[in-house]
Amino acid sequence: MKKLFTLLSFSLLFGASYAQYCGSSQVSAINPGSNYGFPKLDSIPCIVQGANTTLDIPFKTYTTFTAQGNTVNIYKLKIDVMNNLPCGLCWSSTSATNEFNPNDLGTFRIQGTTNDAVGEYKIHLLLSVNTQNQGNYDIDSIDADAGGVYLYVRVKANGGNCAPVDTNSIGLTASTQCPTGINDVKANVSALSVQPNPMTSEANVTFTSEVAGTSNITITNIVGSVVYRTAIATKIGENNTTINKGNLPAGIYILTVGNNKAAASRKFVIAE
Fold it and tell me: First vs last Cα of the chain: how many Å apart?
């Protein structure tokens, strides 16, 4: 069964686009009611396009998880990644490690400003599950959809209506390269590249900036922890810098380049 879960999650992981993790949050847990999972999907407010948003979504952690016809007990559950959030939004939770025990009450906080298209976005949660109560996550990064756990985020126009959730729809796909809003044109970061990818010891990072100044470079792992951070002087036009593997283990990472107005992210792999 473990192999089945692992093969499924591996294919989903490489086909997904990653939403930005905000980092540890001071979100307070909210009781979603007596049922496990999320509240009624239509009760989650819409995000207003182009407006700064803070949206708190409560949940109650399951005690069991069923996928591919197999049911397992949950001794601890970890949120690895939240995929397909509209561009410009980031997420955090009530747990600094994004780990929860069965029956725990938790809250996702989604915040930021998006200019992605109006409509509904089907969010994919990648979960790791400890089923043996031995301190190890023996099911790694499985898509919660496999267990019937669904979450939708809706974007509406300023002054527009919040359309009902259509659970039969695959929804919209969030921008893979975040466009800038009207007020952010002078802070655009684009054409981000990490080469070679996969990398073994070092890689060259190139990107285009529309403004001179300072850009922050961060690398996060698949559970959203920042494992590398630096700042470089940026010129108008093409910029480049080198990142080294250092002590980072082999795996999948997200590199983000940006300033206080805009950012671009790319997935890359460190090979053995």
Answer: 27
Max Cα distance, the chain (Å): 55
Which residue is listed with tokens 């989650």? 44
Smallest CA-to-CA distance from 207 within 224, 222, 227, 187 is with 187
pTM above 0.85, yes or no: no
* Of the options 2.10.109.10, 3.50.50.60, 2.60.40.2550, 3.40.640.10, the CATH number for the domain spanning 182-270: 2.60.40.2550
Other CB atoms within a 10 A radius of the CB of residue 130 amount to: 20
Check: CB of residue 68 under 8 Å from CB of residue 135.
no
Parts of the chain belonging to CATH 2.60.40.2550: 182-270
Give the CB-side neighbour count of residue 191, counting CA atoms within 13 A.
Answer: 10
Bridge partners for 253 per DSSP: 221, 268
Residue written as tokens 């108008």?
236
Segment 67-86, tens digit of pLDDT: 667 788 889 988 877 888 88
Alpha-carbon distance values, 80 to 77, 139, 141, 158, 219 (Å): 9, 12, 6, 32, 15
Show the CA angle centred on residue 150, arms to residues 156 and 145, nearest 5°: 135
In this structure, how many other beta carbons lie within 10 angstroms of the beta carbon of residue 75?
17
